[in-house]
Write a structure and sequence with these properties.
The protein is built from two helices and eight strands, in the order E-E-E-H-H-E-E-E-E-E. By secondary structure, the chain is mainly beta. The protein has one domain. Strands 1, 2, 3, 4, 5 and 6 form a six-stranded antiparallel sheet that branches. A two-stranded antiparallel ribbon has the order 7-8. It is elongated. The protein starts with a strand and ends in a 23-residue tail after the last strand.
Length: about 130
């Protein structure tokens, strides 16, 4: 499994978001050839790739207590090994969009730069004293 570099962009209050690509390397070894009675054995690697595709279909992560989440994985690319030697490496890529709000979450609560009211979300004026907050 390989995580490609992510370019993060700011949202607000320290939160960031970006597209993440995950590349899976499927390395299989066999002496079987597709033009022999062992054809089924030679094609087993593609059944493994298909099973992983089905497992990742609809896979996503809702926001955790630190404010990190990711959208559904989208299948975005593949590179099939055509070497046909004893070891084959097939590359499959999935992309997702990630949001990281962990810089603005403390003990499960969103941090705000100023005090806000609980009923309307309005920012308190500086004229109010601490006991009014």
């Amino acid at each position: 499994m390989e995580f490609l570099p992510v370019l993060w962009s700011p949202l607000s209050r320290g939160a960031v978001h970006g597209d993440m690509t995950v590349r899976l390397h499927f390395v299989t070894a066999t002496l079987a050839q597709t033009d022999t009675p062992y054809r089924d054995e030679a094609l087993r690697r593609f059944r493994l790739i298909r099973a992983v595709k089905l497992a990742l279909n609809g896979f996503s992560g809702g926001a955790d207590e630190q404010g990190r989440s990711f959208s559904q994985f989208q299948y975005s690319g593949s590179d099939t090994d055509h070497n046909h030697e004893q070891i084959c490496e097939d590359l499959e890529e999935w992309r997702t969009h990630c949001i990281d709000c962990s810089a603005s979450v403390d003990d499960g609560y969103i941090l705000t730069p100023r005090n806000v009211t609980l009923d309307t979300g309005d920012i308190f004026a500086d004229a109010f004293s601490e006991e009014m907050v």
